[in-house]
Amino acid sequence: MLDLKGVDAGYGAFQALFGISMRVNAGEAVAVIGANGAGKTTLMRVISGMLPASSGTMTMEGSDLRTTPPHKVVELGIAHVPESRRLFPRLSVEDNLRLGAYIPSARAHFAERLDYVYGLFPRLKERRGQFAGTMSGGEQQMCAIARALMSKPKLVLLDEPSMGLAPVIVQQVFDLVRRIRTEGYTVLIVEQNVSQVLKVADRAYLLEVGRIVQSGSSAELAASDEIRKAYMGI
Amino acid sequence: MFGFFSSLDCSLDIFFVEALLNGVLLAGLLALLALGLNLVFGVIDVVWICYAELVMIGMYAIFFFVQTVGLPLPLAFLLAIGLVAIAGLLLHYLVIRPVLDQPPINQLLVTGGLLFLLQAAATMAFGIEFRNLGLRLGSMNIGDMSFSWSRIITFAVAIAAVVALWQFLTRTYIGTAIRAISQDRQIMPLMGVDQKKVYLATSAIGGGLAGLAACLMVLQYDIYPQIGLQFGPLTFMICVLGGLGNMVGGFVAAFIIAQFITIGGSCVATEWGYAVAFLFFMLVIFVRPQGLFGAKS
């Protein structure tokens, strides 16, 4: 589904990603793990077009992502739940969801998609008229995921969904990730919480200072001594 | 307070009530003017210093269509609204877009420069004479009070336009994007929103509102090249008082300022109305730099 080959990217003179090659197959949940500053968020931004790649190839179901304007990427079926949620704080929950359905193909099914995400997250229905910024962190994460699902994406990019949340809420967020997997979405998830994310993902890539240094099934990576020592504190 | 006013021949008599109601009527027009400027600033983060000059263009366009071309007034109104909407589009595309990422002072100077350019062009084309369409709509009398129909119509249309815009902003996708964009510009592409299109749509709506204001203003004011100097600073002040970019704040501020102008004008002298309004504005800004309804940043 998603295919990256030799992708470089950076900010001005600073190169953040070096020759990233990875793929996500339909129906999979794939994790990108790594320390703070390894380039995980940059990778997500490059895939969704917020940051241009400087070289390499990047395709979504055969469509060239590098020549797709940023606001057209979502029309290819990629929905990005950005780091720290980035809801529109002074818009209602429902207005946030409406923006998630901005693309023409989603507008036509707005009412249907709204019912669908309210079915997944009944709490959002209770809070639909409330400013998104007034909800708790966990509810905001729910809203951010729901907003992404409004466009009826094939691939959902989740950037650090557990960041900044209380430990008990983190567990709920990973339950949410499992839920959207069972709903049939393909998931690419970036996380610092390595032990948790390896439980929900099928496969994982380990990113270190902008390079993929290890990849394999979640079970393999979870069993690797280096990863256990460096990222899981075991 | 009242002692001060009564010493200036102003008490709670019929003239006071008349001034109060005229203030409400004036507020409709001021609210409409402030709405256009606030909308553009809220979305694009650039102040159209030449906003009142767009209104002036619209007024001259109506004058030209009616007096020179001989079109009926309603058609002239529609054409003027369309023309100023296009002027708003061109203003964004040709003048604002190149300086979008530049410091605010540069943005201020290019739109400020355009103000003088438009005034000069109007003077060249139409001369410095005061012009009007010679419309006489009469007034409505309630007891000893008198309210001109042109003001009543202006108020009704302005309020209807504000309501219509609000519906547009809350019920459509692009309207929702317009309200969202200032809250997080960077992630708009993730929603599939093309910022450039939102900016252009906003500029066209901002221009259209200026065109509508022009239609209402020819009903009660003479047309001359410097009319923008009368309404431009006032509009700008109302926007800042209400919190620049805050459309609801601007609406409320228009009603406050209009009262200062009409009551101040009726108690002392018309010129003093503006002075009192600016004095009030200065005092508010000393205490609340972000305006009455602006968020602290």
What does this structure look like?
The complex is a heterodimer of chains A (234) and B (297). Chain A has 234 residues and is α/β, with parallel strands linked by helices. Chain A has a domain of 134 residues: Rossmann fold, CATH 3.40.50.300. Chain A has ten helices and ten strands. In chain A, the strands form two sheets. In chain A, strands 6-7-8-3-9-10 form a six-stranded mixed sheet, with helices on both faces. In chain A, strands 2-1-4-5 form a four-stranded antiparallel sheet, with helices on one face. In chain A, helix 7 links the parallel strand 7 and strand 8. In chain A, helix 6 runs parallel beside helix 7. The longest helix of chain A has 16 residues. Chain A starts with a strand and ends with a helix. The mean pLDDT of chain A is 92. Chain B is an all-alpha fold and 297 residues long. Chain B has one domain: ABC transporter involved in vitamin B12 uptake, BtuC (Orthogonal Bundle), CATH 1.10.3470. Chain B has a two-stranded antiparallel sheet. In chain B, helix 3 packs parallel to helix 5 and helix 9 crosses helix 10. The relative contact order of chain B is 0.19. The N terminus of chain B is likely disordered. The chains are: A alpha/beta (234), B mainly alpha (297). The interface between A and B is medium-sized, with 29 and 17 residues.
